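User: Please fill in residues for this 208-position structure.
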């Protein structure tokens, strides 16, 4: 092949379009993960207060067998507030609220628990979740104590048995110790009036 033929072949090969490389998917992977997590977070923010979005396997089943000691140093009207166990749920309609002093939404819903404690025919009980006694005392000392009994769930074991996703959560238990309703997330004035109270009144009306 002559030099001119070689130059011509080189020129023709340079005229061919370069083969396109596929876009490396791994470059987009962090963005995809971020979008997925952001979507999950947004879903929990917008839907977390709807008890139907995350169904509980414990609804219409007996409350778990548990026994929680009192939170040290907490009193009500000068009387020490005792802990409680499953047997304390029997014979009276109970509302069990899972809370913690470090939980900002718990502070937001607390005035509604003060109102809830005034409802006739129920007892309001608290499970203090992974909290320090001194912090729980300060929390209730500043906001008021609506609970007739408070159990210290220092390790979070009881919350697992109750199927708790996060604090706060609120359960309605009938006189037979059966869980009839679960509200996930903080109560708001609207959800308290339009969602929670109607469900509680159903249990009260059933009389069991």
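Assistant: Residues filled in for all 208 positions:
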């Amino acid at each position: 092949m002559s030099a001119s033929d070689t130059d011509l072949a080189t020129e023709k090969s340079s005229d061919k379009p370069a083969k396109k490389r596929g876009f490396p998917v791994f470059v987009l992977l962090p963005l995809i993960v971020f979008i997925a997590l952001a979507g999950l977070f947004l879903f929990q923010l917008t839907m977390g207060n709807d008890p139907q979005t995350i169904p509980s396997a414990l609804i219409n089943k007996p409350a778990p067998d548990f026994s929680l000691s009192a939170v040290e140093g907490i009193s009500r009207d000068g009387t020490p507030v005792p802990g409680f166990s499953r047997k304390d749920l029997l014979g009276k309609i109970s509302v069990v609220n899972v809370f913690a002093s470090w939980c900002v939404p718990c502070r937001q819903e607390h005035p509604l628990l003060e109102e809830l404690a005034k409802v006739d025919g129920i007892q309001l009980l608290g499970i203090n979740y992974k909290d320090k006694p001194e912090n729980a005392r300060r929390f209730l000392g500043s906001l008021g104590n609506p609970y007739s009994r408070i159990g210290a769930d220092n390790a979070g074991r009881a919350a697992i048995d109750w199927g708790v996703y996060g604090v706060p959560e609120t359960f309605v238990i009938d006189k037979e110790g059966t869980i009839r309703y679960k509200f996930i997330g903080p109560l708001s004035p609207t959800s308290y009036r339009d969602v929670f109270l109607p469900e509680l009144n159903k249990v009260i009306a059933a009389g069991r």
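For context: The chain is about 40% helix and 20% strand.
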